[in-house]
Design a protein that fits this description.
about 400 residues; 2 domains; globular; FGGY_Carb_Kinase; kinase activity
Length: about 400
């Protein structure tokens, strides 16, 4: 989520607002609000910052809520450009049904809603710098799209049969759908465009939790250390990895990190394994929510892994496969987000939906769950769940 207030000239008049906001959301959403906007109240969305901003004098100058992308394009051209549906829905303030701003059921006085919001900008937009660079005068201009949606498209996860699991700095589980029914409070639902939605959940701490371990112990991850950690299914250490609060599935801003079960014999490798487990368990809780809501069918879907932290770590992919009970394959081509942008542009250029060939969907290596290990890991996941609820009393 990124958000900025622009005036009628397309000039920036507010600070940039980012999802890393630490202030608790002051927008209390009803169940109807949540289903309309696709998100619960949480500090990672824009409502709290907008409520703060409305008390400042600069708000009087805001006519368009933009993104970093629309702010830059507005400076490059002679038009004030609005956000895409995709960017707007990432703020948690966009009504998925009416295509209007929706902040806890409140209108935003003075701010324009959406009219033309196609992915490609089709207005008579002219570049301000065409005299300097005449070759760009007839270039096509595209609005921004959320990186999660692009990663799904780029890894060919275009329906509920292919579930994208990404671990980079953060972690996420996502499914593309044109017909999303009910989704529980543990999940979010964003738009990719006017036709497609993206439903799933995200963890603030993914690879960043492993980086925290590296900084804490002054050691870089190596294949040897990862191999040793993954062999410790019964190390007895359980981690609650909320270094920067919790998003899916409980959405608690004030959640903190807890490591339980340490004693004199506990090693740094035990702690590393607990971190790998905890993120894998978070991913599985999102998957479990998606199965309960009938968004994904366990026996009819494969997990498709991408993101730097997973692409380099085959043992972590095996752990996720075993604990989730889903078949899993590795996307294996890298740069899924960039590839997704290229596919979206290809769809616009050709005027038709992109359909991957069977050869593109075939993968040489598909992991299947080890069901004995699955049972052991699920018991460990239940213990972590009880620990999370116990320490929540302290939060």
């Amino acid at each position: 989520m990124n958000l900025v207030g622009l005036n009628y000239k397309g000039e920036q008049v507010t600070r940039f607002m980012l999802y890393s906001n630490s202030r608790e959301s002051r927008c209390k959403k009803t169940e109807e609000d949540r289903l309309n906007t696709g998100t619960p109240e949480h500090s990672s969305y824009g409502e709290g910052q907008i409520f703060d901003l409305k008390g400042e004098s600069v708000w009087e100058d805001v006519t368009v809520l933009g993104s970093i992308v629309s702010a830059v394009i507005s400076r490059w051209t002679d038009s004030v450009l609005k956000m895409s549906y995709s960017e707007a829905s990432w703020t948690g303030m966009f009504n998925l049904k009416t295509f209007e701003w929706d902040v806890g059921g409140c209108k935003l006085p003075g701010v324009e809603d959406f009219n033309d919001n196609e992915f490609r900008i089709r207005d008579n937009v002219k570049f301000n710098f065409a005299g300097r660079w005449p070759e760009i005068q007839n270039a096509k201009i595209y609005r921004g799209v959320g990186d999660g949606g692009c990663a799904n498209v780029g890894s060919l996860c275009l329906d509920a049969k292919r579930v994208a699991v990404t671990i980079g700095t953060s972690a996420a589980v996502r499914v593309v759908s044109e017909d999303v029914g009910y989704f529980s409070k543990g999940l979010w639902c964003y738009r990719i465009d006017a036709r497609r939605k993206l439903v799933g959940g995200a963890l603030t701490d993914g690879g960043s939790a492993v980086e925290w371990w590296e900084n804490m112990y002054g050691e870089k991850l190596s294949e040897e250390v990862v191999g040793e950690a993954m062999g410790k299914d019964d190390c007895g250490v359980i981690a609650v990895p909320f270094l920067e609060g919790e998003r899916s599935v409980r959405w608690r801003d004030n959640a903190n990190c807890t490591i339980y079960g340490m004693n004199r014999s506990t090693t740094k490798v035990d702690v590393l394994r607990a971190i790998f487990d905890s993120i894998s368990f978070g991913i599985c809780r999102i998957l479990d929510e998606m199965v309960k809501c009938d968004i994904v069918k366990r026996d009819d879907a494969v997990l498709v892994c991408s993101g730097g932290a997973l692409e380099k770590n085959g043992l972590w992919r095996r752990l996720i496969c075993d604990v989730s009970g889903f078949n899993l394959c590795d996307f294996g081509e890298g740069s899924a987000t960039s590839r997704g942008v290229a596919i979206l542009i290809k769809e616009d250029y050709e005027g038709r939906k992109y359909v991957p060939s069977p050869e593109q969907l075939e993968k040489d290596t598909v992991l299947t769950p080890n069901w004995t290990r699955h049972q052991l890991l699920r018991e460990k996941m239940l213990k972590q769940g009880r620990l999370i609820e116990a320490v929540a009393e302290i939060w």
